[in-house]
């Protein structure tokens, strides 16, 4: 979220998902330069019937392709009413709105990302997205949709898409693994209507949901778990490095900030409670990061998730 000063393109703070209000709206430095009626009329409309794009949920992605960065294909779900400028592209499945979460889950996967960066381009155009493989008929679609929505339904603006998808989700859905901690939100703990508890807020849970999406997409597309792990190790060197050297999690599933991590590397578990306390730049809330601190093994978790969903897929076949 941009800071009020906006001195340069790095003058921003990360959003504190744990403290995010149910009616939160994102802040942007871009504002419409025309009156609302003129702006709305000029914004993208689809087809001969001129259907307003802003009336629909859309999957948005960053147009610029960072082919050697942590990730290249960076997507998010945006709700009706949201607008964006040209460095971002967006799309929807206008004739089949129920397919949008499945498409979104595939596009957020490591495999889709790999297929984009395998043929490096400076921009990720609609033609790039159009060639990516997506299976809308998989027996794992409900599991994919569940995790993708829990990563994206940030506020009440997303309630309609959650409420429409909730009846199709498995009531007995459970995690395939990941960091276990007291108070961890079970996937089966879901309601038919959106609530603040719908969003996955802890960093380790969000990572695990993404890992399970990656494993399911690989499985559905016919890749082996060795293929998936090889793609991770060889094609995402920056992400691999962060996982092994920078991303440290406390026992409550929170990502340990740099200031605490630096002191811990110097003092180990002798670090004091005061030194384990840091103020979140986005919310101003003080969090105490509890020992032990651990580095999560993405590759091992992907293998565990792949085996878990391979069994489920076999049972459903």
Overview of the molecule:
- This protein has 317 residues and is mainly alpha-helical.
- 36% of the residues lie in helices and 7% in strands.
- The protein contains eleven helices and seven strands.
- It has helices spanning 36-42, 100-107, 110-117, 126-130, 141-152, 159-165, 203-220, 225-235, 237-245, 258-267, 298-316, and strands at residues 45-46, 51-52, 58-62, 75-78, 88-91, 277-279, 286-288.
- A three-stranded antiparallel sheet has the order 4-3-5, covered by helices on one side. A two-stranded antiparallel sheet has the order 1-2.
- A hairpin with a 4-residue loop joins β1 and β2 (51-52).
- α2 packs across α5 (141-152), α7 crosses α11 and α8 packs antiparallel against α11.
- The longest helix is centred in the C-terminal third of the chain and has 19 residues, at 298-316.
- The relative contact order is 0.12.
- The mean pLDDT is 95.
Report the sheet with the most strands, covering strand number, pairing sense and barrel closure: 3 strands, antiparallel
Mean pLDDT: 95
Total helical segments: 11
Which residues form runs of ≥5 with pLDDT under 50?
none
Assembly state here? single chain
**Cα Rg:** 20 Å
End-to-end gap: 45 Å
Outline type: globular
Placed side by side, the strands forming the largest sheet appear as 4-3-5
Q: Which percent range fits the helix content?
A: 25-40%
Strand content: 5-15%
- Taken in chain order, the helices and strands follow as HEEEEEHHHHHHHHHEEH
Find the count of extended strands (DSSP E, 2+ residues). Answer: 7
Look at the helices and sheets and give the structural class. Answer: mainly alpha
